Each structure stands twice: as structure tokens, then as C-alpha cells.
Amino acid sequence: MEDPDFTVLLTGDSPHDPTALKAVRAVTGLSLWHSRQLLDSAPATVRSDIPFAAAARAAQHLRQTGVPAAIRCGWCRRTLTGETPVDPGPCASPYWPTAHCPANSMTSCDCEFCVAHGPLPGHTTHRSL
């Protein structure tokens, strides 16, 4: 099963100090001038179509420097704004059960895949095989 792509977003006004500019530059690879333009254009997309782990690291790096950042799932369009995963619903992904989405906090799943093949790492099932 293919994983969804995630987008890192600037969600609000950001400080324009050198630390924030360097954080945007580190996440995007843009020049300092283009990083400042990106900060000025918030809300804006910082990076798109990246795996969840990379998106989480990028958003955390931005938040640590005072830049408000969020992550949006490319499948269900849910937006994660804080340090912790969102609640299990509503996930509108047509591709996998809600419990499989890395953007939620579920630890158990009773979908047919998990029952037939075993749970995902860190998950448990309630039904017997």
C-alpha cells in the first residue's frame, strides 16, 4: 500500500528574525531573500508531496524558531497544527483505513488487512485471526 504525501504549510504571521529565515531556508533550500518572501506570503506552502516523517521534522524545525507551521495530508486533507497527532477522525481517505494514517493517534485496527496479515508496527487488533 502506498503512503500519502504530506504538505508543510506556513499558517500565520511569522517573525522575520534571522533564526526564522534560516529555518525556512533549511527546510526549503531557498535563498534568504526567497525565504523572506515566503514568510511574507503566509499562509503559504513550504514543501509539498513529501513523506510524513520529513513533513513532521520540517514543521517541528519551523515551530521551534517561532514560525507557525502545519502539516496537511494529501489524501484526507486533514491538517495537523500541533506537536501531537490529530484525533482518529474524520479521515476521508479512500485508500486505507483511518488507523493506518500516520496523521492520527490510533493504536489499534480491526480492518481486514490487519486481521489477515497482522497489525501495523505499533498497532494491535481486537479480532482473532
From TrEMBL:
Signal peptide: none
Keywords, alphabetical: Ribonucleoprotein, Ribosomal protein
Top-level division of the source organism's lineage: Bacteria
GO cellular component labels: ribosome
UniProt-listed InterPro entries: Ribosomal_bL12_C, Ribosomal_bL12_C/ClpS-like
Boundaries of every Large ribosomal subunit protein bL12 C-terminal domain copy: 6-67
Gene3D superfamilies: 3.30.1390.10
Pfam family, one: Ribosomal_L12
Protein's name according to its UniProt entry: Ribosomal protein L7/L12
Source organism of the structure: Kitasatospora cinereorecta
